[in-house]
Structure formats: C-alpha cells, structure tokens
Amino acid sequence: MEADICKRFGQNVRRIRRAQEMSQEELAHRADLHRTYLSSIERAGGRNPSLRAIDQIAKALGVTPGSLLDGDADAPRK
Questions:
Q1: FRET partner for 73 with CA separation of 20 to 30 A, picked from 21, 34, 45, 61?
Q2: Among residues of the chain, what percentage have pLDDT more than 70?
C-alpha cells in the first residue's frame, strides 16, 4: 500500500512538472529540496517524502498537496 501511494505521488509530481516545462533542477530550487532527492521521489516510489517535502513540492508546482496524492493532480492551489 505504501509503495502505491509513493509511486502515484512521484508520477503526479513528474507529470505536472513536465506539463509546466520545468526541469527537476528548477523544481528542486523552488521547493528548496536537493535535486537528487526530488529525482528519487519521481522514480516510482523511490522515496517516502515527508509532509514538509510534499507541501514544498505542491507550493512550487502551484497545486494542493492532496492533489499530488490522488488522481486529481491538476487541481490548482487555493
């Protein structure tokens, strides 16, 4: 179960980042995270991100944290 949500989260991050034509380096900078950490998150459940990291990534992408965890990853942040 844990691997499924981590995989889905990573896939959503990658899909939104690419849709915004943003590099991993740029997203990592905006989210104040190391690029290799972000890369491991995107690699199908390579990491189990903290709540802090999830929030930072969501803010950097302009979406809600919850939208990165479910199928509605394109929901704008309010």
A1: 34
A2: 82
Fill in the DSSP letter of residue 77: P
What CA–CA distance (Å, rounded) separates 3 from 70? 14
CB 33 within 8 A of CB 56: yes
Tell me how far apart the alpha carbons of residues 12 and 37 are, in angstroms, rounded to a whole number.
16
CB atoms within 10 A of CB 46: 14
As given in the structure block, the two tokens for residue 57 are 């990534």
Q: How far is CA 43 from CA 1, 10, 39, 49, 77, in A?
A: 17, 6, 6, 12, 24
pLDDT over threshold 50, residue 19:
yes
**Tokens 């459940």 map to which residue?**
45
